[in-house]
Structures are given as C-alpha cells and as structure tokens.
Amino acid sequence: MERVDGYDHQPGSHCGAGALRNVTDYYEMDYTEAACFGIGGGPAFVLYEHPDRPWVTFRTSPLWLERAFFERLGIPHTFRAGDDFETAWANVTGHIDDDDPPILFLDPGSLDYLAEGPGHVPPHAAAVVGYDEEAVLLSDASVPSLQELSRESLREAWSHDRFVPIENEYLVVTNARASEEGNDAAAAGLRQAATYMLAPLEVKRDARGPGEEGLPALRSFADYLGTWGDRSDSTRPVRAARQAIDEHGEGTAYRGLFAESLAELGQRTGLPRELADRMDDVGSEWRTVAEHLAEIDDRENPQPGSFEETATFVADIADQEESIFSALRRELGDRGE
Description:
Layout: E1 2-3, H1 15-26, H2 33-40, E2 46-49, E3 56-59, H3 65-73, E4 77-80, H4 85-97, E5 103-106, E6 124-131, E7 135-139, E8 147-150, H5 151-157, E9 159-160, E10 166-167, E11 169-173, H6 182-198, H7 214-227, H8 235-245, H9 255-269, H10 273-298, H11 304-332
Helix pairs in contact: 1-2, 2-3, 2-6, 2-9, 3-6, 6-9, 6-11, 7-11, 8-10, 9-10, 10-11
Domain DUF4872: 154-328
InterPro entries: BtrH_N (IPR026935), DUF4872 (IPR032369)
Domain Butirosin biosynthesis protein H N-terminal: 14-140
C-alpha cells in the first residue's frame, strides 16, 4: 500500500479539528486540536427540521471549520467537490503519491468502524494517508487507530444527499506555510464563533442546508424537546439528540473543547481567563443534559415532565451561552467573518 511517509495518527475529540491537528503536525506546524477548533470557528448549533417528521436533528460544530482554519492562517490549499468518484479518486491518490495527505468529507453513517447509532449530521472529516487498488487508509481522529476502508465503502461514504449533500469532497494543503499572523487568525476565529452564535445571519458562510442556526436554533431545540413527551414514541428524536450532544464520546456538545480554545487562544488575544472557565462549566451542563436524555431513553414510558425539565435545562444553557458569547464579542469586536 502506498503511504504518506512520516504521518503520525493521533486521536482527538472532534473529527475535523483532530484532522487539522494531525495534518498540520505532519507539516511541522505547531497547532493543538483546541487551537485548530478555535481558529476554525469553534462551536455551532444548526437545527435541521424534517418536513415530514415531528422531530429535529442538529449538529454542534460548523460545516466550514476546516476550510476556515486554512483561510484564516493563509495556508495555501485546494478544496474540491462535485467530481465523479473516479476523478476524485485519481486526484486524491495523486496527492498521496506526493506525500500530501488530503482531508476527506464523508457520511459517518456509512463508516462501519464508528460507534453504532444514527451518526452525526455529515460531513465527517478524516485524512487519507494510504491506498492501493482496493482500499484506502484513513486517519480518523475520532478513533484511536488508522482504519482501512475498501474502495467501494469509500465510494458509498464519500457521496450522499441526506441533510447536507456531499459529493466526493476533499481538501489538501498545497504549500505548508502560513502567510497570516497567528494571533490575528485566533482572534478572527473566536470573533466568528461569537458572532455566529449571537447573530448567525451576519456570518458570511454557508451551513449548506435548511434550518435555524446559532442560539436561536438552540432555543428552538429546547422548545421541541419540551414537546417530545406528548409523542407515543420519543425514542428516535431522543437518540438523535444524544448522538448530536455526544459525538465521538465528547459528551459536551464541544463546549468543553471550546473552553480549551478560549484558554489557549485567549492568552494570545488578551481575553480574561474567566470566559474559558465559564464555558467549561457550560460543557459540564451539556454533559448533564446528555445524561438526562440517556435516563429518558432507558425508561419504557418516560413522563412528559422529564422532557419539560430537560428542556428548561437546555434553555438555561442558552442563556448562559448568550452571556459568554456576548462578553467574547465585546472583547474582540462584533465584525462578522
């Protein structure tokens, strides 16, 4: 199997930020996973409504994180989507031949090695670091070790039309050198996180799908959650919500990871430490929400009051996040990114 020489796989909390950390480490750039997450734009909240179903699906990180990271740092790269499979395969394997590991954007529900369940809303990011005629070798930071995937399984995972359509998308570094000042990139990423959560329409990036975003979406999710106790079967929406909050076992809707971003990047941008501490507390409360949903899921006939109580908890989290992101916006300015 052809391999990218010298690539070191390390697991992480977030598939995209972990891929960025691993790829930039390969190019001898010094970025932690938390720094990658923050520079890329940090957490998000996108709520997807189903026109024919009485529940909602959501994701808790932005779809543009990987591209925004390279753009903010001025690292030359190529992003391609829409090629047919054979063309995309030839391009990706050519990059591997040149010892440049591409990041692929995949459907997690089509990846058998991930934990059972509905999977988070695509795309799921993983670097590809090897191939032969029949298979590829993936560096997926959401699992501890490299994963071999058949060429046909890759074909299935690399293209789908559910929620967020993807068609053979990949990103690859073309010149491993940053042209933008790191502190400016850090401030821009944190600034966008605040602007997006407070006023998502001010952010000139595309969530690639219908639905609310930012804190308005989080409040809508709380409203939906409070009504699930009236359903004859709440299993599907509850499990989807648990999966979204607990992607890859992170458990805190990535608020814990973003607290690390605020701590690390905040030192470079002059932020008060208490913002990171407050966000870490919010991460703990998200973990409590996940635990409440797990308890509801385990009950044969959960009471409506359990849903209402959990919905109130989520609404309180939304208030806390609004306060934190408002303070972050005041510290860094309110310019959209």
